[in-house]
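Lab notebook page, bench 4
Experiment: in silico fold of construct C2
Operator: M.H.
Input chain length: 470 residues
Purpose: comparison with the prior construct
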Amino acid sequence: MPNIRIQDIADILIMTFLLYQLYSWFRRTRAFQVLLGLGVVTLIYFATRFLGLYMTSWVLQELGTVLIILIIVVFQAEIRQALYRFSRLRHFMDERQDTRHSQFQEIAETVFGMASRRTGALLVFQRIDSLEDLLSNGVRLDSEISPQMLESLFYNGAPFHDGAALIRDGRIALASCHLPLSVNPDIPRYLGTRHRAALGLSERSDAVVVVLSEERGEISLINSGDLRIMTSPAELIAALEELLKTGSEPQSVAAKQSLFANMLPKVALLLGVCLFWALVTTRQGQITTVTAPVRLHGIPEGLILLRTSPEDVNVQIKSLSSLTPPPSKLDLTAEIDASEAKEGQTTIRVRNSDFKVPSGMTITTVNPSSIRISTERKLRKRVPVRVALQGELPAGLASFQIISEPSAVEIEGPASQVSQTDHIATDFLDAGQLAPGKEYQKNLRQPQKQITLLRDAPVTIRLKARSQPR
């Protein structure tokens, strides 16, 4: 077991917190069921890799790439809502007013009066989470809350009575809103569309929803997927005040309650994260030696590289996690900056920063710790092209000369080699096949290894009659 650092404890706690947030947000949604399925598929994938079932693990790996794209497309609304909840800055940037407690009295008395007359209604109280992506077909009102307004909105036969009313910042912001339906299979069958819509919204946000049943005359308060039957206006007022108050009361009691609530999933997630951490750190401390070729860059413009000694270095790599690829499979290269090279021999130190290793790996030593390079001044000059013949010209062509176009080309390379090069030869040409009026294409031969021909195209060869002396 590797040594546990402070960073490892923080790593475990952060991952547990993030997973619990995802669990609490998605536990009553379709996304949670999909996440459970993906978790099972992931466990099967790691098991098949561990057991050496290469075909099954390869199929699951390729399938996982497609599934991730499908999840992003299908559950984009849930993902967007989750990202919004992670933005804790909204507490400082949103300037929300408290819903006044006097309005709760009017709302409670009004809805109980409507329930006694079997009037169905949906009231959505927005809290912190944005509901823009969850509500549809809403009509903007921005009116004060009053018994007359509520009764007129949900009066049977009124244009807005089938939808929900959104209450935001102490005012009725929208009316006739459509809410997302819950897909929870455990919802009782006797609950109708209003209750399923209220549960669906509460599963995806922190909104509080009051539902008036048209069939039973019941009033339900729904929050975070939980449904409570309200038996009196006083009970409804107390519940709304508890859920919607935004004052600056001490948060220590609420923080303790939040910390110790739902201990079973929290402990299960903590144990799961600890187990996964232990698995991914099983190779921590393993050191492997890898041979890396040396690649130079930044050589000054006026110099040319002749040789590097050595051309490879041995790198010792320490693995910190089993999630990283085996060091033996790394395509490691020493990318060394040679911009400080001088003409002649230069010694350059090899640094750890010259290597790019994946996250979870560190370089311990490099042997040798320096390399020596030899450079020479770069020279460019123009040399003539010489046609290389195989055999002799046919009889009767003695009055012709063999020429190439172009007649000279430029070469570039080390000054010592370029200065000794007096021509560039073509590939061999069969002299017996030459005929006046015809043209032949031939490539140029490389004179020496470190000399560069500054022409890639072949040259054109033809016969030209010699000029007659006067």
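Observations: DSSP finds twelve helices and 22 strands in the chain. The radius of gyration is 40 Å.
Next step: discuss at group meeting.
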